[in-house]
Amino acid sequence: MKDIIFINPLDKTHVSEMLELQAPPLNLMYLGASLEKASFSVKILDDNLKRWGYEQITKLVEKLNPFIIGVTATTATIKNSLEYIKSIKRILPDVLTIIGGPHPTFLPIDTLKALKELDVVVIGEGEETFTELAEKYEKKGEKGLEEVKGIAYRDQSKIRVNDPRPLIRDLDSLPFPARHLVPFKEYETTKNDQAHIITSRGCIYSCEYCSSSLIMGKKFRARSPENVVDEIEELYDKYKIGEIGFIDDTFVLNKRRAHRIAEEIKERSLDITWSTSSRVNTINKQLLSNLKSAGLQSIYYGVESGSQRVLDLMNKKITLKQSEDAVKIAKDLEIEVMASFMFGYPGETPAEMDKTIDFSIKLDPDYAQYSILTPFPGTPIYYKVEKRGLIEKDWEKYTVLEPVIKYEKLGLSREIVKRKLLEAYFKFYRRLSYYIKHPHMIKVVLKTLLKSLT
Q1: Largest CB tally within 10 Å, which of 108, 132, 185, 454?
Q2: Contact present, 274 and 226 (Cβ < 8 Å)
């Protein structure tokens, strides 16, 4: 049986390189596990780790001579991702080329039109779709594509979009990510004995700037506590991982389930620490106290704004008071807090951006993360600003650090928005009181500043 090869593209965005965000590609490891379960041979070439480039990747692929190539793409990496396909197709014209990820999911026709060498776009969740696609293509060739739900594909000179695929109902049925398909211990995260887990999919909220509920559904789908802790145990025993990052959108949405996961970790005597993210309106002291007793060390809150009016524009469905309470509960329990904030929401004023900076300092989280509103394809705000002609489509600028909205037409300017971002970082991280509490951050901040200047 010929190989299926996945490529994780080099992420050349400034934010990725500056922060050294190297972690194993969880999405590709999930796909690999599902395909291996279906008896396919799979390989993952992670160019974001190895930094080989198109030419070297193409040479490696040519030697392996796969029958399918799969590439993943975000909005910021879409241009780069397509270059791998173009390069490989030149050497292996008969290979089936497939792309997936959030950007092609929402712009499948545009993505196919952008590159004639691209054959198929996988839309949304990929495990069942990619597996069926591989099985049908192996047996029937291109004729099999018309039977696969959840794809768009090139049929000679035409582009066809098949019926959508229902979301996977039983997440416990998915095999654990195939971490053996990557050099697991070579990543920045795993060198520090850290690994990521996704325990649920879907979000019942509809924040204007987020596409998660549109990719993974508006219904919360969750793995069982036993299944989650089985994966933690595998990471602990097999890979010697001591720190887990739960990267769900809404890990604590089901509080009973979160409590059960904590109890399961304690019952198995797993000596781990872990982090998670949460909406500020889903937190209470009893919940966080129990999670801490099971190893919870840090929590990430999407605060986003210090202006209630702007939060309402975002359809965030939280209040400033809820953010204050959530941060205080975590601090009282000595759980580290990371809080995120956003600038440049359409309609926001410079004075409201100043409110956000002041509010972030008032909350005094252990770490503050600031970004510029980026209307990614698929988000409600994307369609609103696109309809008004307010958006630039230079996808490589979609890094959350570059303004891509034509703010001048809104009576603002890109320079002001970018200046507020820099001002926020400067004001938050210049405080002597901060470094007295977090002396280890002196080295981190200096290193980040040096990288940003080179």
Answers
A1: 108
A2: no
Q: How far apart are CA 304 and CA 301, in angstroms?
A: 9
Cα 380 vs. chain centroid, distance in angstroms? 18
Task: Give the β-pairing of 120-122 and 151-155.
Answer: antiparallel
Among residues 140, 101, 138, 136, the alpha carbon closest in space to that of 122 is found at 101
In this prediction the pTM is: 0.93
Pairing outcome for strands 96-100 and 243-246:
unpaired
Question: Strand 273-278 relative to strand 296-304: parallel, antiparallel, unpaired?
Answer: parallel
Can you say whether residue 269 is alpha, beta or left, with left for phi > 0 and alpha for psi between -120 and 50 degrees? Answer: left
DSSP assignment, residue 306?
S
Question: 178-202, pLDDT tens digit by residue?
Answer: 999 999 999 989 888 999 999 999 9
Helix, strand or coil, per DSSP, at residue 153: strand
| Residue 2: closest CA among 30, 32, 53, 42 | 42
The Cα 301–Cα 311 span in angstroms is 14
Phi and psi at residue 284, to the nearest 5°: -145, 165
Q: d(Cα 2, Cα 42) in Å, to the nearest integer?
A: 9
Helix 320-332 vs helix 285-293: crossing angle, to nearest 10: 40
Spatial distance between the Cα atoms of 429 and 444, rounded to a whole number of angstroms: 11
Cα→Cα distances 60→28, 63, 87, 184, 360, Å: 18, 5, 12, 20, 48
Helices 26-37 & 127-140 angle (0-180, nearest 10) = 50
Q: How far apart are CA 172 and CA 46, in angstroms?
A: 27
Helix extents (H) in 268-413: 285-293, 308-313, 320-332, 350-363, 380-387
